[in-house]
Design goal:
The protein is α+β, with helices and mostly antiparallel strands. Helices cover 30% and strands 17% of the residues. The strands form nine sheets. Strands 16-17-18-23-20-21 form a six-stranded antiparallel beta sheet. α7 packs across α8 (254-269) and α8 packs antiparallel against α9. The chain is globular.
Amino acid sequence: MLSVSEESPNKGLPRYSFGRATVAVLVAVYLLAGCKSDPVQVEQISIDRVNLMPDQPSPYKMLDWKEKALNYDQYVFNRNLKGEFLPFLWLDSTKRNFNQTTFGLFTVIGDVRQGTKGNKEFHEALNAMGAIMGAGLVGIDKTNQDGMNYVKMIQNYFNRENGWNIMMNNTHPSVALMGGGYGRDWWYDVVPNMLFYAICDLYPNVPRADSLQRIIADQFYKADSVLNGNYDYSYFDYSKMQGFVNQIPKQQDAAAGHAFVLLSAYEKFGDEKYLKGAKSAMDAFASQKESRFYELMMPFGALVAAKLNADHGTNYDVQKFLNWTFDGCKAADGRTGWGVIAERWGDYDMHGLQGSITDGGGYAFLMNSFDLAWPLVPMVKYDSRYAVTIGKWMLNVSNAARFFYPYEMDDQHQWLPEKKEITKNVIAYEGIRKADDYGKAALKEITPVSLGDGPKWVKGQPEESMYSLYSSSQVGIFGSIIKKTNVEKILQLDCNVTDFYGKNDFPTYLYYNPYEESKDVSFTGAEGNFDLYDALTQTTLVEGATSGGSFTIPAKSARLIVVLPQGSKIEKQKNQVSAGGKVVSWLPDSTKH
């Protein structure tokens, strides 16, 4: 059995809390010393499907997503709840992989496959890790909550007993089969490692975590070397170091997942081997001829591409990866139709949600919609040409996402309104369909319908299994990124918070103005006196600002605000703008001098 060190010698990094057409936005500014006489042309590049989305979605209501995340954690991790289907958490003393007790969260409310009345070993890393990451993003300490170190407990998902030596969705592959799982499905094997890396950045210095991160990165590096540019497999056996094809479509976007983990490992440990591996995986990803978007790894390719381009001089086509994500998979042998919704269903704008564009006319999923924001908002820091289009998409997706929650959707547009009290409006439906596929008479002519697939999975599942913890656990992504401003429909989007292991030297926020006229927006998010620098125009908008001070956003435009110490001297070095030796922003090709 693999020996894993308990030591954690490396400290985590500091954290701080329109297709193919382009629209040239000419902004005359004076750039920097030695370049002051030259006007800069800032090019904003659009995404086709975002062009189809409204500037102002309706009906409109922006939730307090941070409050939603805090309340979710308080409810779901309360081990003292009593009643039918309660509590939502149980302890697993099997001690698989490591000699410690771990925990499980029900995938959906009342899941008969799980818990002390089902199989106490059948619990999912995507759910548990998603909840830990989401909580950490909004400031909850999961290393010491009610006497439990939940962060260390998730290490049991590191499958060393079977020789894979990576995080997996269950504590052992056979557990998924015992619980009625899918068997081998590549994204289930890669994404838990992406989540684990994120969690380790949020919670540094947890015993054994650094050692596990090293082993995972080494396994991914070996796997990419064996794959040698060919990711045409349904899954990969990390023990045999061999790819396989089964009944599940091939998942070539696993290359983006590999690249994300390897680049994160490089940024954490500084080992050039991991940077080499990240580039190799990205080369394989970029060599594909069409979108093979399977579940949620595709957009991470856009983030990694933008970071490598900005920091390491590569020239990956970020535009292609974004189009692959939003337009979705069209390959005959792929997961056809998986992309981003760009439609109004009945009286509801569903624009921006991720899921199937084609299944029953459209089937959107909450977890996938949360996860899309994780890479795409920080991506704007590294390639600011996408500020306007990502800002517009985030306005749409964060508005539409509320309709997964039973108290936010009209009763006549959801499958189980009479049972919604148990959700406390923090546990959501798994999905939203353009049309009901269960055949409920009252919903025959209704569009859209909030529901879930839980009752279909196994005999004996209660109706309440439409309510999904698995889908709701990552609400902290929205909770940490999105903050309302003094102007309705103009959001403050934190570009640093999900940029794990990134260069988060200065707080950076994206704002998008959907109105036909300019708007004055009050800034919050820093104390004392500071300067507000706009990375899109390369100008200091406000010197000596204080919290509550305002700046102007032109109509249908964006600002990428970097908060700098007052009086900071701005310098340009190659493609970077810096202050005090720290990166302020990156210059896209169109603005380099």
